[in-house]
Amino acid sequence: MKIINILKDYYFFGNSLLDYAIFILVFLASFFILKFIKVYIIAKLTKLAKKTTNDFDDVIIISIANIKSSFYLVVSLYIAFSYINLLDFLQKIVYLLFVLVLVFEVVRFLEGIINYFVKKKMKSIDGEQDRETRSVMKIITLFLRITIWSLALLMVLSNLGINITSLIASLGIGGIAVALALQNILSDLFSSFSILVDKPFMVGDYVQVGNDDGIVQKIGLKTTRIKTLLGEELVISNKELTTSRIQNFKKLQRRRVVNTWGVTYDTAKEKMEKITDIAKKIISSVDAVTFERCHFSAFSGSSLDFEVVYYVESSEYGAYMDAKHEINMQVLEAFRKEKIEFAFPSQTVYLQK
């Protein structure tokens, strides 16, 4: 008790020795408690991480483990300084240090999560798409980092007592002006992000956009380049691609073919009944082709129509045309042998005297 009373009697800079003793004890206790919490949390998360198959929890553990000692030091000082009287400017300095260190560690934590998803995406990139996709991913990462650091800066300024409302308003007006000036470029840029994430097509895919078709050669930040069947390079803006209807033939596992065979009205019933058997026999004999059905489907103006459906078990256009050619040639030969005539548009005119 005497020691405590003695400590109470001596004052330096508006605080007794007892206040300084409490300050030191609180600082040390806070520092070691925070360190203990860190070790305890890491140990618990490590046990949980061993039970999961994904590696995202490992990123959380690494991020917590990488928190610098300066963070615990500043937080402990901030807690301890609340037990002594400080001049106003010293209080502001301590508070500023606390805010800066806290914001810095939060930003580093968020950057670690961003890097995790970026690296995971990079691992899935292969082949010809590698260079274009990596460049887009770098831009996305840069954009996210700029956004995070901008928000962190605004938070620090706000805690310093600076009115950021007018600053945000002026930045908003400037941003609108820049966005209007770069409207087309930004549209293509965000469209390239959409293509990257949604993946309606990839490099090497055979696609059709409107009346144009070809093989995708390159997906850039502003445009996509397609090599047409004629050999020319077609350059299409990414904005146009994201607003257009795209047919991606690379996704085809097999092609469904629907044909209409029209025969003349004077074809006998017995011969018409043979058409289904002829179709099934011929189509089933062709390699990589699956027969589905053949039906007498309609009475047309100049013909009796049979609808024939089959599948070509290939996504290649050349294989599809080869199968179609072979089937058509065999059908033509079989119809001539059976003396079944194909119909063509014709009119019969009756003259009455």
UniProtKB/TrEMBL annotation:
Residues 144-183 form the Mechanosensitive ion channel transmembrane helices 2/3 domain. Residues 184-250 form the Mechanosensitive ion channel MscS domain. GO terms for biological process: transmembrane transport. Residues 260-342 form the Mechanosensitive ion channel MscS C-terminal domain. InterPro entries: LSM_dom_sf, MS_channel_1st, MS_channel_C, MscS_beta-dom_sf, MscS_channel_2nd, MscS_channel_C_sf, MscS_channel_TM-2. Pfam families: MS_channel_1st, MS_channel_2nd, MS_channel_3rd. GO terms for cellular component: plasma membrane. It comes from the Bacteria. It is a multi-pass membrane protein. The chain crosses the membrane at residues 20-38, 59-81, 93-118, 139-158, 164-182. It is found in: Cell membrane. Keywords: Cell membrane, Membrane, Transmembrane, Transmembrane helix. Its main location: membrane. PANTHER family: INNER MEMBRANE PROTEIN, YNAI-RELATED MECHANOSENSITIVE ION CHANNEL. Belongs to the MscS (TC 1.A.23) family. This is Mechanosensitive ion channel family protein. It comes from Candidatus Magasanikbacteria bacterium CG_4_10_14_0_2_um_filter_33_14. The lineage of its organism: Bacteria, Candidatus Magasanikiibacteriota.
